[in-house]
Amino acid sequence: MEPAAKQKVIYITYLIAALDITWLFLQFSITPYLARRLGFDTIWFGYLQTTVGVIQLLGGPVYGRFADVFGARAALSVSCLASVVYFLLLAAADNTFMLFVHKLPAVFMHALPGAQMVVADLSENEKRADALGKLGLCFGIGMIAGSSLGGTLSTRFGEKFAASFAAVGSFVSLLLVLNFIPKQTKIHTVPESNSMDTNKHTTQLDTKEKGSSNSIFNLGEITRLMKFPGVAKTFTVKIISGLPAGIFQVMFSIIAINFFQLKAEQNGYLMAYFGIVQMVIQGAVIGRLTSRFPESSLLLLSVGISSLVGLAQAMMANVFHFCLIVIPMMFSLSVFNVITDSMLTKSVSPSDTGTMLGLCASVQSLLRTVGPTIGGFLYETYGVPSFGYIQCIINAAVFSFLLSAGGRTQPNKP
Description:
Strand content: under 5%
């Protein structure tokens, strides 16, 4: 593909990601209030969130593998189609059973990892963090639009209309994928060492790739990525450091309703504020940081700020305090997610970036799986400050580990 054609595909991918996040946050403005109307308490809402986490935890790595084998268009098409079914089932949910059933299509809903795969495939290594960061800008736009739409539509027209609106929007995203995303975005290069051996090398390479790509459910092909240098360490940091923030995010809907006493429309405005902050950070800050500082330093910075954010969360008393905390919180989360995703995709071969991004997505799903159970217990037993104290302690420990590990390895670097 020519550079101009690549850039056009990346821009369309940004649009698809923004639309997908819009419908996702529109759903976030519906589900907590629909669940409460159907009689869900905090514990049962936690079970509902855990169900989504388990479903996407199982689907994330397989989706990434599917994207590597069948290409970007097929992967994004499956995700958008699953979103259409997901929102239609949400519109039909009028009892507890249907509210759980509508979560099942989420096993295929991984449009953001699919968009990350396209961007990672079509961007150069030195610009990858910045390109992935721009997806966070799309996330912010979707957060603003989805939260505002969800709160307004559900308040004025009801949850069913809002869910149906999201289903139509997901179908529009599907049409964009089918018309503008190429079937395959990966670039395979053959070394130019010896023209006599080029055909032989190409045949062996193709045979090897086909042999390793026969099965989407090949766990060995998925887990072997952990053996690449630096992958296991970065992946472990991504899980441990992200766990406290993930728990807080999962429980935020309950915190907004019970602790901050927000209505659906007010919650939508608060989420829109999150989106504005994230847009500024990912659109204007991360690109400059990644061009000036090494990724290891930015990872250390994000973990350190996250620890301080946890301490501030433990001391907040009202929604105004939280709005002040949101700025450093979104900065640390945005930098942490972009940098870890960039480091992990650079650690594997180009043919495995989809699987790696699927594994990265499974981290978020893992947090949503264990988060509601842990979060529900902490909320009922110790209250909202417990989330902040745990985030402060865990991230301080990870910060110390990264600092000491960097100190030990620095003399060995050339």
